[in-house]
Predict the structure.
Amino acid sequence: MTVLDQPQSDLAADLVVTPAVSALPAITGFGAAFPGEMDQDGLWRDFFAAHYSSCIPRTGAVARRIFASAGVTRRHGAVDPRVEDVSTWGTGARMERFVSEAMPLGRRAVEQALTAAGLDAAEVGLFAVVTCTGYSTPGLDILLARDLGMAPTVQRLMIGHMGCYAALPGMGAVSDFVTARNRPAVLLCLELTSLHVQPATSDLGQVVAHALFADAAAAIVVQPGGAPTPSERVDTRRRLRIRDVVAVTDPTTSDHMTWDVTDLGFRMGLSPRVPKVLERHVGAVVRDQLLAPHGLAPADVTAWAVHPGGRRILEVVGEQLELPPEAMAPSYEVLDQFGNCSSATVLLVLDRLPDEPGPVVAMAFGPGLTLYAVLLERD
C-alpha cells in the first residue's frame, strides 16, 4: 500500500512526531509567598460565628459544620476579618487594596522562582500573570516587571477571571512561547480571596467559599528544553518537562460555579452538584485525552498534583482514577495547610510532589464547568 492509499486515520498516526523528553520545555524553578497566617478554628470562633449567627440563626449552625468539615486547619490572608471586616467595602476599595497587597507577594514569589532556576529577571522573554481576585491598569504584569528588573522588551500576558484552573492554561501558554521563541518565561498565579468576604447570607455556597478560600502567590520559571542547568541552582530537583495540555468544558453546567463582580467585591456561586459533574468527566479526560495518546495509563503516573477544590473534589478524583491514598496526600496537605488559593493552589501541590522520575499529572477545575489537565515528565 502506498502512502496515498493509506486510510487518513493511519496516515495521521504515522505522521505524529513525539519530541524527545529532553527537548520539551521544562519547569526549572518554583517560588511561593503568603500573607499572614490564620487558623480555621479561630476564624470561625472570632468572626464567622457571629457573622452568620447574628443575622441568620439557622444558617449559623450549618455554617459551623461546614467550617469544621472543610479539611482546612490553617490558611493565609492579606486581610484577617477578625482585625478588619471588609464585607461591606465597595469594589473600588477592595481593588486598591489588592494592588498594595499583591505587589510584595508577587515580587517575592517570582524572585524565589528565578533564583531557583538560576535566571536573571532581565533574561525573561514572557511574563504571564494569572488572577481572578483583583484588577488594575497598569496591571501587575507591568508593575512587577518594572520592579523585578525585567527588560522593557519583555512580552506580557494577563490571564484574568478564569478561576481555580487558570494556572494550567497559563502553563500551556508560557510553554508554547518557550517552545516557539526559545526563550524563558515566568508564570505567576496570585490570588487574594480574603478581599472578597461577603455580607452574611443564607446561601450555603457562600459559606463554603468562606470556609475554604485563602491567599497565595505561586510562580514557576519555564525554560527551553536545551537550557543548561545552572551550577549554583538552589532548586536541585529533577526538572519537570511539559508534555501535553488538555481541557474539557461542560457548558450545560455553567451555572454551577460562578464568580460575579458586584458592588461589594466578587461573589462566588457554588453548587453542591459540582463533584457529580467532575465525576462524570475526570476519568475520560485523564485516561483518554491526556494519557492514552502517550501510551500511558493512570498506573504509569508517578505523582499527581490535583487541585484541592475541597475534600469531596479530591475524593471523587481518587475514586474515578482508582488512585492510592499516597497519590493524593500532597493535595490533602495543601488543603489542610493553605486552603483553596484558587489558581495558585495546583502550583503549590506540584511543588510538593516526590522527586521521582516518570510521568506526572496536574489537574484543576473551575467555572464553565471546566477541567484542565497537564502531563509532565520528571527527568
DSSP finds eleven helices and 13 strands in the chain. Confidence is low (pLDDT under 50) at residues 1-17.
